[in-house]
Amino acid sequence: MSAPHLDHPFSGAFPELVHAAQAEEQPDPQLLLLNESHARELGLDPDWLRSPDGVSFLLGHGGGPTVAMGYAGHQFGQLSPRLGDGRALLLGETAGREIHTKGTGPTVFSRGGDGRGALGPMLREYLVSEAMHALGVPTTRGLAVLSTGRRIQRTGVVPGAVLVRTAASHLRIGTVQYARLLGVDGLVERLCTYARKRHYPEASTHEGFFRAVMAAQSATVAQWMRLGFIHGVMNTDNTTLSGETIDYGPCAFLDRYDPAMFFSSIDRHGRYAFRNQPAILGWNLARLAEAMLPLFDADENAAVDKAQGAMNDFPGVWEQAQQRELARALGTADTGIGQRWLQLLAEHAPDLTTANRLLVDDPGALAEIVGSEWVADWQSLDPEVPAHPHHIPRNHLLHEALRDAESGDLGPYLDLLAVVTDPFTDHGPAYRGPAPEGFDESFRTFCGT
């Protein structure tokens, strides 16, 4: 079989937003993981992808044009006007999904970095993104992980690796910011029209597109909150226009329910702590509105009014998304019981995943944690008890599995991957419980750049 044909609609339509780039040659590439089911969904032959030509294709040497995408971003509240794919390449798209290869070497956006990926972070993103997909959360998908045969310098010397992921698109709020900063006449309008037609064809106006992004991202973040997911680096360049979760570098999950919890080593003041994620989403959407402002109306004052009006609706949009997820979690749309549930979680700080499962398995045991009064009131509503996952990517289990993988033993990682991609089946107590006491105090996550 020859290399698959990939289309290139984005780079063809927006030469201003991409730079041609070539993946570096790797000294000893080895295919470590291949998502065969997703490959088939994309029309790709898994057997061919395992061949030398297939490995070359995954590494960005398939013969087609490869580009680094440009974008800006507010990072921890500070605008960086020129970020972009500093260690990644867009290979093209097939079956409505873009294929993106991460860790392939420096590009014009690398800002002095080596452009390479470390094995641990690449494996982390693959596993967590596939777990999120199995949990029903909109997300980029992992297609493959390859070792490169390099040893690269991070906090120590670690194995190099490449992640291949797919997305509905890799367009971000930061992409719109970058287009606005370039100052090319009509570029922001063309970009937002492209994104609107691609992701929200039912929206007929730019304001409608903005509101669709708001609704999609609110729905996604509400799912994060139900599951206890902490993104860790909710910069505007990591907030997609499609609503998919993207970039899993410093991500983690709650064990003990602590709204103030954060794990990212670079988030020194907890800007992106668990409880702050809804407010940060609103802040990021405000930055999107600023970048899109001329598109809301030809009259500047009217444009400001419409953009402000859309942003004024965000609290209500978020509340609706949160209530949908609470209703999904509790099996009842009673808002009072949902708000009391959140208050009790914050008060008693149980293991969140266990508490959610007790709603299904043992309300009596749950009453011992959050109190019998709430459980009795909840049961009186005759809730339709929902399915809750038995398993999430527990921080301590993933940490141990990545440490073993970096030492050459992929076995624990593969075992964990099988569990978290089948989260509604009980795989046993070894994968169910929270981290040992004291683990959270010392655990930190890293971007891997």
Automatic annotation (TrEMBL):
<feature type="binding site">
    <location>
        <position position="238"/>
    </location>
    <ligand>
        <name>Mg(2+)</name>
    </ligand>
</feature>
<keyword id="KW-0460">Magnesium</keyword>
<dbReference type="InterPro" id="IPR003846">
    <property type="entry name" value="SelO"/>
</dbReference>
<feature type="binding site">
    <location>
        <position position="165"/>
    </location>
    <ligand>
        <name>ATP</name>
    </ligand>
</feature>
<comment type="function">
    <text>Nucleotidyltransferase involved in the post-translational modification of proteins. It can catalyze the addition of adenosine monophosphate (AMP) or uridine monophosphate (UMP) to a protein, resulting in modifications known as AMPylation and UMPylation.</text>
</comment>
<comment type="similarity">
    <text>Belongs to the SELO family.</text>
</comment>
<dbReference type="GO" id="GO:0070733">
    <property type="term" value="F:AMPylase activity"/>
</dbReference>
<keyword id="KW-0479">Metal-binding</keyword>
<dbReference type="Pfam" id="PF02696">
    <property type="entry name" value="SelO"/>
</dbReference>
<feature type="binding site">
    <location>
        <position position="84"/>
    </location>
    <ligand>
        <name>ATP</name>
    </ligand>
</feature>
<feature type="binding site">
    <location>
        <position position="247"/>
    </location>
    <ligand>
        <name>ATP</name>
    </ligand>
</feature>
<dbReference type="GO" id="GO:0000287">
    <property type="term" value="F:magnesium ion binding"/>
</dbReference>
<feature type="binding site">
    <location>
        <position position="172"/>
    </location>
    <ligand>
        <name>ATP</name>
    </ligand>
</feature>
<feature type="binding site">
    <location>
        <position position="86"/>
    </location>
    <ligand>
        <name>ATP</name>
    </ligand>
</feature>
<keyword id="KW-0547">Nucleotide-binding</keyword>
<keyword id="KW-0808">Transferase</keyword>
<keyword id="KW-0067">ATP-binding</keyword>
<feature type="binding site">
    <location>
        <position position="102"/>
    </location>
    <ligand>
        <name>ATP</name>
    </ligand>
</feature>
<feature type="binding site">
    <location>
        <position position="115"/>
    </location>
    <ligand>
        <name>ATP</name>
    </ligand>
</feature>
<protein>
    <recommendedName>
        <fullName>Protein nucleotidyltransferase YdiU</fullName>
        <ecNumber>2.7.7.-</ecNumber>
        <ecNumber>2.7.7.108</ecNumber>
    </recommendedName>
</protein>
<keyword id="KW-0548">Nucleotidyltransferase</keyword>
<dbReference type="GO" id="GO:0030145">
    <property type="term" value="F:manganese ion binding"/>
</dbReference>
<feature type="binding site">
    <location>
        <position position="114"/>
    </location>
    <ligand>
        <name>ATP</name>
    </ligand>
</feature>
<keyword id="KW-0464">Manganese</keyword>
<dbReference type="GO" id="GO:0005524">
    <property type="term" value="F:ATP binding"/>
</dbReference>
<feature type="active site" description="Proton acceptor">
    <location>
        <position position="237"/>
    </location>
</feature>
<feature type="binding site">
    <location>
        <position position="87"/>
    </location>
    <ligand>
        <name>ATP</name>
    </ligand>
</feature>
<feature type="binding site">
    <location>
        <position position="247"/>
    </location>
    <ligand>
        <name>Mg(2+)</name>
    </ligand>
</feature>
